[in-house]
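RETRY 2/3 - previous attempt timed out on the joint model. Re-submitting the same 484-residue input unchanged.
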Amino acid sequence: MKNTALTEKHISLGAKMVPFAGYNMPVQYEGVIAEHDTVRNAVGVFDVSHMGEFILKGENALDLIQRVTSNDASKLFDGKVQYSCLPNKTGGIVDDLLVYRIDEKTYMLVVNASNIDKDWEWISSFNTKGVEMHNISDKTSLLAVQGPKATAALQKLTDMDLAGMEYYSFKKGKFNGVDNVVVSATGYTGAGGFEVYFENEYAEKMWNDIFEAGAEFGIKPIGLAARDTLRLEMGFCLYGNDIDDTTSPIEAGLGWITKFDKEFTNSAALLKQKQEGVTKKLVGFELVDRGIARHDYQIADAAGNIIGKVTSGTQAPSLKKAIGMGYVSSGFSKVGSEIFIIVRDKPLKAQVVKMPFK
Amino acid sequence: MNVPANLKYTKDHEWVLVEGDIATIGITDFAQSELGDIVFVDINTVGDNVDKEAVFGTVEAVKTVSDLFMPLSGEVLEMNSGVETNPETVNKDPYGAGWMIKVKLSNTAEVASLLSADDYKKLIGA
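RETRY 2/3 succeeded.
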């Protein structure tokens, strides 16, 4: 199992550590609800150094990215980030990812930890025009500093104008005395804030200085458990739960990152899905009866026919209700549809709702 | 980890307070800390006779769900309505206000099969 540069730090802070995607990661510190609330109301720090980073460089870097990703990377400009996915050839998704345009010929792809090797091989297999590829995952640390006080806390550490940065933009520069730090106005929590990329050797210093800067705002370390409840309240997909090698971006509601004004892996079949419709769709739901939906629970209609499966579910700490996502037959995907989650052989009434959850 | 000496325990991390033929049952401090924030205690066996080691309910934490097992055979007399409305009580006070059910024992001889506080401490490495 791999460690991040901060594993010892998490252990010393009393985190509960779990194996996640091959890494020894903090799942919680003081408790998932308290951590969740810290991010929603103040500022929290996640060590997400397990995430993978690839640099793609060269004349044909954009061509390669356009070929393997579903979103239109030609719309990017220097300092702009795009959410995208890597469709496979059989209607599924290899991974979801962020694409950063550093300059016209240099891009950074940020991928899920569990998929680093798979993605690397996948993208390499399309690299026929000599794009230089570097896997910098093992030497790169990533801290997500998220919450309404993130800007005020981090601004103390840099001259970059953080408040002026638009969502899904980034800057590369001096941060906390370290050069070439990527500060990105992204994050998977819906609470606002930044993701900060730097080399491992600065990890301890970055962590300590960010906590000192955030002390007056009540900054706290946050584990993966709260990361999951935060992203689920926003209706963000988690690879391996809500999307995988068998779910298409159209079924997953990722049509907005699937652009058909270019050709990419499996684009013809996905276009057909978009035009003709799909048989199952990812929806958000709220439990009406008391109970909690979990990954892989079955979804039924009122007559008891199985119509789908839960992909994510939790008690939502900010909303104080049980929410979830799952694939259902398209006839049940409209907001307001009544569905039933089978919890320990008992059908619990639920309702399809709009995401983000409210 | 708090393991009161006056209680009996099971390998499934329940505690039992036996008074005559009535047992009060809850989950241990270790169990609540492993589960994390508890958000729902689901018990629908009140009035039922439930065998030792059978499931009498489930406890849902934010991240996980766990079955609750009968430490002793008997009739479930009542459940703690306090943990129904405020499930976080189980985290805050697992041996007090966070109790879960009261049971009328059908075979008090089974009490001998329960773990002592010292046995339970060994089990959890406390």
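Chain B is about 20% helix and 35% strand. Closing ticket.
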